[in-house]
Amino acid sequence: MPTRSLVLTAVALAALASGVAIAQDKKTKEVKPATEKCYGVALAGQNDCAAGPGSACMGAAKVDYQGDAWKEVPAGTCTSIKTPKGNGSLVPKKS
Questions:
Q1: Which pLDDT does position 58 carry in this prediction?
Q2: In the prediction, which pLDDT does 52 show?
Q3: So where are the chain's domains?
Q4: Cα(41)–Cα(29) distance, rounded to whole angstroms?
Q5: What is the DSSP letter of 31?
Q6: Residue from 88, 66, 70 nearest 79 by CA
Q7: Of 6 and 31, which is predicted with more confidence?
Q8: For 18, how many CA atoms within 13 A lie in the half-sphere containing its CB?
Q9: Where are the strands (E) in the chain, listed by range?
Q10: Contact (Cβ atoms closer than 8 angstroms) between residue 69 and residue 51
Q11: pTM of the model
Q12: Is pLDDT above 70 for 8?
């Protein structure tokens, strides 16, 4: 009888451990990729935030590629984005 109890306990612990491993795997998959603020790449009305003094924020850019309006882009890609007004910038630029 004691052997049977040990086997059942071992099976129960294995099942719990696999459940924890699955839960950890799901947490890892839900991590968002790193992003950065990129100024001067948003189209008019499509910025994520910051569109000059007195702006309401999201969607407030008045012109395409406004230098003080930013859009979130994948980390490390901002300065390689080409627009008709030059490349994206990690800091606000004059429009």
A1: 75
A2: 57
A3: 1-31, 35-87
A4: 29
A5: P
A6: 88
A7: 31
A8: 6
A9: 35-39, 49-51, 69-74, 82-83, 86-87
A10: yes
A11: 0.61
A12: no
